[in-house]
C-alpha cells in the first residue's frame, strides 16, 4: 500500500464532493479492489469516508469532517505557501510535495490569482549562492537517519583545523545564519553537540539504531552573551566596503570622514573570527582604537606579509 497514493486519494476526496471507485482506479492505474482497501485504510486512520451506491454514487468524506476552504484567508494561504515553497528549495522530499498539494487544494478558484500575486511579492530562497556541494546530499542522509533513528558517522574538522572521527545519534537539523547544523548526541564527547554540515566529510548512515534520549535543544540565541562579550572599536573605512561593513552594524554607526571615508563604531569580540572580518576588508579598513587591537592587527598583517616574502 503506497502512502503517497493514500495521501493523494484524501486530497481528491477533500477537493471533490464525490468520486467513484473506478474513476480512482483509472487515475492511479490500480484495480478497484485496491481502491476499496485504500478507503478502508483511510477510515481506520480516522478520516470518515462513506460510499454511496447507484447513479452518481461513489466515495466522499463526510461533510461535517471537511474543512471549509473559506476558513483560510488569502493572507493565510499566501503565508503557508511561502513557507513551504522556501523550504522546498533546500529540503527536498515527498512530505513537502504533499504538504504543498494540501495547501493548494484549499485555494478557491476565484481567489487563485490574488493569492499567486501576493505569494510572488516576497521571495525567500534559503539556498546558498556558492558553497559545499555535499550539503544537499548530507541533508538527505541526515533526514533518513532522523526518520529511522539510525547512527551517523563522519569525519569532522573542529576548532583550529583538528580532524576527528565522530559517531552521532541525530536529533535535529538546524539552519542558523544561512548554515546547516546537526544537533546530536556525540559518542566521543558523551554529550549533545552541534555540528556544522560544511565541516563534515565522508558522512555515512549506519545500520545500527539507537534508543532516544531526553533531548537537549541547542542554544541558538546568544544575544545576551554577545552583549556581554562585545565591545565597540573605531575603524576607518573606504566607502567601497561600506556595503560589506553594513552586514555587521547599522548605518547609524557611520560618521563621514571626508568625501570617501567613514569612521565606524564596529561591534567586536577579541577572537579569530572577528580579526578575520577586519582583515577581509584589506587596505580599505584601518583600526584606529583601542590601541591593543590596532597593535594585534599590525602583528597579523606582518605575519601575512612574511609568508609572501619567504
UniProtKB/TrEMBL annotation:
Gene3D superfamilies: Winged helix-like DNA-binding domain superfamily/Winged helix DNA-binding domain. The keyword Nucleotidyltransferase does not apply. Keywords: Transcription, Transcription regulation. It comes from the Bacteria. Residues 2-57 form the HTH deoR-type domain. The keyword Cell membrane does not apply. InterPro entries: CBASS_pafABC_assoc_protein, DeoR_HTH, HTH_11, PafC-like, WCX_dom, WH-like_DNA-bd_sf, WH_DNA-bd_sf, WYL_dom. This is YafY family transcriptional regulator.
Amino acid at each position: 500500500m503506497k502512502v503517497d497514493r493514500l495521501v493523494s486519494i484524501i486530497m481528491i476526496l477533500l477537493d471533490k464532493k464525490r468520486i467513484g471507485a473506478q474513476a480512482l482506479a483509472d487515475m492511479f492505474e490500480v484495480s478497484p479492489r485496491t481502491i476499496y482497501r485504500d478507503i478502508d485504510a483511510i477510515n481506520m486512520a480516522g478520516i470518515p469516508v462513506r460510499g454511496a451506491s447507484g447513479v452518481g454514487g461513489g466515495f466522499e468524506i463526510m461533510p461535517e469532517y471537511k474543512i471549509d476552504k473559506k476558513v483560510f484567508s488569502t493572507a493565510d494561504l499566501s503565508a503557508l505557501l511561502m513557507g513551504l515553497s522556501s523550504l522546498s528549495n533546500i529540503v527536498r522530499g515527498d512530505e513537502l510535495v504533499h504538504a504543498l498539494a494540501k495547501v493548494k487544494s484549499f485555494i478557491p478558484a476565484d481567489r487563485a490569482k490574488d493569492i499567486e500575486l501576493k505569494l510572488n511579492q516576497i521571495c525567500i530562497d534559503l539556498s546558498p549562492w556558492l558553497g559545499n556541494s555535499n550539503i544537499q546530499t548530507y541533508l538527505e542522509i541526515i533526514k533518513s537517519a532522523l526518520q529511522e533513528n539510525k547512527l551517523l558517522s563522519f569525519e569532522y574538522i573542529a576548532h583550529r583545523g583538528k580532524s576527528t572521527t565522530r559517531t552521532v545519534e541525530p536529533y535535529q537539523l538546524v539552519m542558523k545564519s544561512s548554515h546547516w547544523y546537526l544537533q546530536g548526541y556525540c559518542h566521543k564527547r558523551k554529550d549533545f553537540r552541534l555540528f556544522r554540515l560544511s565541516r563534515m566529510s565522508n558522512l555515512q548512515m549506519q545500520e545500527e539504531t539507537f534508543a532516544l534520549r531526553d533531548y537537549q535543544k541547542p542554544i541558538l540565541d546568544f544575544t545576551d552573551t554577545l552583549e556581554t562579550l562585545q565591545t565597540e572599536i573605531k575603524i576607518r573605512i573606504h566607502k567601497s566596503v561600506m556595503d560589506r561593513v553594513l552586514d555587521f552594524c547599522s548605518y547609524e554607526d557611520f560618521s563621514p570622514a571626508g568625501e570617501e571615508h567613514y569612521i565606524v563604531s564596529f561591534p567586536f569580540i577579541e577572537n579569530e573570527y572577528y580579526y578575520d572580518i577586519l582583515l577581509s576588508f584589506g587596505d580599505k579598513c584601518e583600526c584606529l582604537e583601542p590601541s591593543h587591537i590596532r597593535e594585534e592587527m599590525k602583528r597579523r598583517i606582518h605575519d601575512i606579509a612574511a609568508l609572501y616574502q619567504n
